[in-house]
């Protein structure tokens, strides 16, 4: 099977699974987030091994479990960061295996991947859950097509040679236009706040993509894994989505919780 066919087939299966999990929500969503988080963390661990940084899995796993439990009992996710921080610092002080770089990257990994992903649970039962993926996927899709057809100026060649300024702008505009249509149908207010946060979330998604690409270059890998045929690893697929989530969370907070 060709790479393109693999990519398309994986994409179709992935979308079916994604929308099924989003529809079911609850324990299915929490379980999916937990599994995706663990796989993505392992991908990070394997990548950073190449530059002699040893990610400490124990505090991160405990943090993931605490996120899962805290969501069920209604405790703030912020406490999970404290748990990971304390355990990581204990290892830094008493273990010779984890130096400061390893400890810092371990804490970063927890906040960057499982903590951000678990914010999705906040949106269960609201249109903001689907909005995350609309912004992330539309940004990627429009950036690809605009960049492929009109891209002339490199965005950040030393990090991602194929990305263009035109593609980046097209990704933001496409995501905003589709989001506005979505806002109209699901009754999310269309105002300066919602449009501004959508723009920021789209830009953040592209920064997430570039961040993941920079880490791949620093660690000398082509893809984070092979679990998704034609796409690579979990981080290759969710790198932009992870950065979109916090800004959709801010939008949700400003519109409905503040």
From TrEMBL:
One MF term in the entry's GO annotations: phosphatidate cytidylyltransferase activity
Example GO BP: CDP-diacylglycerol biosynthetic process
Pathway the protein takes part in: Phospholipid metabolism; CDP-diacylglycerol biosynthesis; CDP-diacylglycerol from sn-glycerol 3-phosphate: step 3/3; Lipid metabolism
Membrane topology, record value: Multi-pass membrane protein
GO CC, alphabetical: plasma membrane
Cellular compartment(s): Cell membrane
InterPro entries: PC_trans
TM region positions: 12-41, 53-73, 79-96, 103-120, 126-146, 167-186, 238-257
A Pfam family per the record: CTP_transf_1
Domain of life from the UniProt record: Bacteria
Enzyme class at the top of the EC tree: transferase
Keyword Transmembrane: yes
Reaction equation(s) it catalyzes: a 1,2-diacyl-sn-glycero-3-phosphate + CTP + H(+) = a CDP-1,2-diacyl-sn-glycerol + diphosphate
E.C. number: 2.7.7.41
UniProtKB keywords: Cell membrane, Lipid biosynthesis, Lipid metabolism, Membrane, Nucleotidyltransferase, Phospholipid biosynthesis, Phospholipid metabolism, Transferase, Transmembrane, Transmembrane helix
UniProt record similarity statement: Belongs to the CDS family.
Name assigned to this protein: Phosphatidate cytidylyltransferase
């Amino acid at each position: 099977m060709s790479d393109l066919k693999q990519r398309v087939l994986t994409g179709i299966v992935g979308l079916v699974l994604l929308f099924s999990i989003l529809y079911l929500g609850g324990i299915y969503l929490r379980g999916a987030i937990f599994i995706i988080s663990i796989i993505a963390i392992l991908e990070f661990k394997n990548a950073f091994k190449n530059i002699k940084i040893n990610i400490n899995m124990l505090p991160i796993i405990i943090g993931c479990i605490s996120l899962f439990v805290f969501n069920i009992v209604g405790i703030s996710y912020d406490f999970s960061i404290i748990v990971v921080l304390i355990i990581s610092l204990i290892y830094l002080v008493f273990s010779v295996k984890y130096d400061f770089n390893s400890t810092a990257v371990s804490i970063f990994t927890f906040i960057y991947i499982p903590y951000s992903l678990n914010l999705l649970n906040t949106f269960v039962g609201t249109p903001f859950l689907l909005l995350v993926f609309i912004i992330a996927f539309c940004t990627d899709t429009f950036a690809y097509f605009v960049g492929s057809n009109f891209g002339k100026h490199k965005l950040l060649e030393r990090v991602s040679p194929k990305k263009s300024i035109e593609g980046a702008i097209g990704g933001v505009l496409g995501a905003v236009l589709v989001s506005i249509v979505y806002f109209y149908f699901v009754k999310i207010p269309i105002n300066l706040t919602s449009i501004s946060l959508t723009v920021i979330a789209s830009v953040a998604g592209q920064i997430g993509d570039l961040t993941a690409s920079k880490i791949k270059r620093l660690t000398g890998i082509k893809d984070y894994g092979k679990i998704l045929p034609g796409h690579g690893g979990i981080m290759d697929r969710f790198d932009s989505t992870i950065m979109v989530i916090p800004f959709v969370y801010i939008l949700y907070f400003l519109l409905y919780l503040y």
